Give the backbone structure.
Amino acid sequence: MPTMPKLKLYNTLTRTKEDFVPLDPANVRMYVCGPTVYDYAHIGNARPMIVFDVLFRLLRHIYGENHVTYARNITDVDDKINTRAFERWSRKRPLLAEMRELTEGTVAQFNTDLKALNVLDPTHTPRATDFVVNGAEPMDMVRIIDKLVVRGVAYAAEGHVLFSPTEMDRLLGVPKYGALSKRNLDDMLAGARVDVAPYKRDPMDFVLWKPSNPETEPGWDSPWGFGRPGWHIECSAMAGALLGEQFDIHGGGIDLVFPHHENEIAQSCCAFGVDKLASVWMHNGFLQVEGRKMSKSDGNFVTIDELLTTTTFGGRDWPGPVLRLAMLKTHYRQPIDWTVRALEEAEATLYSWSRVGDQHLVGEPDEGVLEALQDDLNTALVFAKLHKLRDMAVEFPEVRPRFNASVALLGIKLRPLSDAAGEVGDLVGEIETLITARLDARRARNFAESDRIRDELAAMGIALKDGKDADGNPTTTWEVKR
Ligand code: AMP
Ligand code: ZN
């Protein structure tokens, strides 16, 4: 009898770790909120992309490649995007077309970033603008909003359509709004700010549709006039159209629990007449940079592209696998501090693994690694297990396929250090940079620093040999430790 997989996932809805039971094991369905594409994506945006990519890989491993459907959206209509599109609009074509061209560029950049991070293509990457009014889709945004109005939980006012959480709870007969974020509607109403927009009946009412000025803002014709959707309705429509009225897992960053995900649940449950949208709600913790919240004005805003292709973070660029490994070292629900130090450590780990790594030697992943990963993606434990496995693989080559398969499950590709020079070109560059830094430190009689670099290289599996050249100048050669 094959052993049944025991995947456990922490569910924000119940605040507990639960056994994962798919609605249909032949088609496990997951939706993750993607980026708003008005500019380069920052490294915080990369976190859910990498975390849920690991989950996607794990689900495929457990249920089979063809039995997992993963949708990750692109928000390509938003006030910041609208403003940028308007600024560059030549008026020779519709503003909507201008906006589309603008976001084509940022989406292409985002895809390049994700390729470098070895993030797999999801099954679907819907763009919000394709789901506003779409005759081919039974579940576009306008149709869902219309259903909500008919059901009496939404109303039109001054070109807007608003969703009323109060009406929702009245319709259901139980207080349901706030179940995900554990907020109580009465408390929220009592604490609501006084400067509420005049077209709202209730301070907690949120926008499903808003009017657009055709001269300056992109929009679509609708029963409520020319306008554009609110952000929350986008995900209800895309998830509904691609995954169905109910599905298994919904993910995103912790910042999205309220109001975005709370509102998604409210809209979808009321429109589709279901009591739940996703069975499991998963949220990654926030990423900050060198101990501070990332912010453009504080000068610590870091894009994925900058890390990969420029020297602005730590004075050098960083390979995609180093970024990916650094992201996974911390458990996904914990906050993560993105530091140069952490990237250096991740690089050292990667090098030490590369010593026994060879992506061509792939077997079955290690049971212990799999078990840790199935325990709510306990990557911190996975790393501890991988370090041990790596040490075993140094001694026993027969362990290497198991080690490689386990690392591959995290989406990390290893290149063997002992490969032909061309293949390890960038590794060689890194090693030589470190050796030069060490020689500089020795010349400056900074022996602590020189020892530190020697240790760092040793952790990468590199042994140094010091000597002198014909003129008596110190030289250092290196070799891969066997
Ligand atoms: P946004 O483009 O801001 O809508 O974000 C896209 C995705 O990235 C969402 O799932 C967010 O929750 C997530 N996200 C944004 N900023 C961070 C951050 N600093 N740390 C972790 N996740 C983030
Ligand atoms: Zn969303």
